[in-house]
Amino acid sequence: MANRPSEDKSRAEQVRARRQQSQKKTRKxxxxxxxxxxxxxxxxxxVTRRTPARTVPVINRPHNKVNVPLKxxxxxxxxxxxxxxxxxxxxxxxxxxxxxxxxxxxxxSLGTFSVSAIxxxxxxxxxxxxxxxxxxxxxxxxxxxDPQEIESQISESFPSVASVKVSAGLPASLTxxxxxxxxxxxxxxxxxxxxxDAEGVMFVPRGEAEIPLAIVxxxxxxxxxxxxxxxxxxxxxxxxxxxxTSLPRTTPEFVEAAFALKAYLPxxxxxxxxxxxxxxxxDPNGWRVYFGNDLxxxxxxxxxxxxxxxxxxxxxxTPALISLEFLYAPFYRLEP
Length: 336
Known about the structure:
The protein is an alpha/beta fold.
C-alpha cells in the first residue's frame, strides 16, 4: 500500500514528459535568414470572373379563380377565372368606327330621317316649293345631305339669290337661309321682262317689287344676256338653271349710267336702250335721242343736243334720230 503514491507520481511525470516531447516535435525550426532579406513573391493581379447575368425566372401566376359557396356548410365550387382582356387604342377606334357605320346605315333606312320639307328663311319672293323642286332632296335621308352641295345648286339655279347658307339637323331638319337681290331696273326686251340689281345681275322676276327705273330695249345690254327668250311662253318654260347660264350679268357702270340719265329724262318719256347707240329716250316731239353708254360728259352732250334741236327747228326739220354717243361726232337722221 505504501508504494502506490510513488507509482502514481511517476506515471504523472511520464505523461508530462511525453507531452513536452510532442510539443517539441510540433515546433518548426526557424527559417534561415530574416524576413527583410527574404525575396518576396511577386504579387499577382486578382483575376475576376464574369458570371452570366442571372435570368429572371418566369413566374406563371395562376389566374384568380372564383369560389362559389354552396348551401352545404364548408362546400364550395371553384370556377375557372375569366381571362384579362387588354384593349388597345386601335381596337377601340375600330369599334367606334363600326358602331358609327352601323348607325349611319340604320338612320338611312328609317323613314323618320327622310327629308320631306325645308325651312326657308330670309326669302321675300322665292318659295320653299320652288327651291325644293330645284335641289331635289325630297325623300333623301338627312345623313346623306351635303349642305355645301345644296348651296352650290341654289346659287346656280337662282341668280336672284345673293347669298345662301344651308344647315342640316336630326331627325330630318333642313334649314336654308337666303338673301335675295333687290331689283333696280325693269328690263323689257321683246316683251320679256327681266330684273337687274345694282351689281348688274339679271334674273327672272318673281313676285312683286317696286322698280324705280324701267328701260325698253331693242338689244342686249353691254356684256348682257347671250340669248333672250323669244316669247313669254318660252320664258315660262325655261327653268332657273338654264336662265342662270343664259343670263349673265351686265356691268355696274351701265346701271349707274342708266340712273344718271334718268335725271334728264323729259316728263312723259321712257328710257330706251339700243345695242348700237346706247341709252336714250323717246322724245315727246316724236324723235329718238341716244347718248351712248358712257355718260361721263352728259352735261356737254345735253348742250350739243339742245344746239342740234335749235338748228333743225330753224330749218323747219323734224329728225327721226339724234345720236350723241360720240361727243365730237354727233349726227342726226331725218328718216327712221
